[in-house]
Amino acid sequence: MTNPYKYGSIEAESYEQQRTVYTDVVDFFLRHIKSNNFLDAGCGTGNDLLEIFKRSGLKGYGCDKSEEMLASARRRNCATEIRVADLDQEFPFDKIFDCIYLHDVLHHLKRPEIFIANSYRHLVGGGILLIGTETEDDLRVKFTSVYFPGALKIDLARYHPLGKIESATRTAGFSKFETETLALVG
């Protein structure tokens, strides 16, 4: 059976309005973003970019694989530049960033180690990669996992274990790997 769900086919306007901006996640990003020289990898409709711009006046860069989502992000005028990109391949920017982040995107990548290695190559010395994802412990206590146990099996197959992510960061050349748990307050 083929999956009828295709990310780019989602109506971007609906996604833009329905997708929650988690204030604690944006607070976390803003602790690390010091200039316009940052990349939101997998920016979708630009919700996080817009919130960062509203709160700090900073306009970074964004990329996503869906042109429909990016059209919405461009209309919001919240980034210096936005480009189509498949994060399982090379970045579309010929640029070095101070900070690269992705939020709730890594589990969509087939080969996260490619994204992590590309991030390392596209960061200035001392730059930082921020990955927002759910851990196995997070998945086990989600509403859908508790009340629909079959959903947990699906999520565990989609989300990359922290050990795999840490290993990919070390292989790419990152010398430091830290985790921080956020409350996801909307």
UniProtKB/TrEMBL annotation:
<dbReference type="GO" id="GO:0008757">
    <property type="term" value="F:S-adenosylmethionine-dependent methyltransferase activity"/>
</dbReference>
<dbReference type="Pfam" id="PF08241">
    <property type="entry name" value="Methyltransf_11"/>
</dbReference>
<feature type="domain" description="Methyltransferase type 11">
    <location>
        <begin position="39"/>
        <end position="131"/>
    </location>
</feature>
<protein>
    <recommendedName>
        <fullName>Methyltransferase type 11 domain-containing protein</fullName>
    </recommendedName>
</protein>
<dbReference type="InterPro" id="IPR013216">
    <property type="entry name" value="Methyltransf_11"/>
</dbReference>
<dbReference type="InterPro" id="IPR029063">
    <property type="entry name" value="SAM-dependent_MTases_sf"/>
</dbReference>
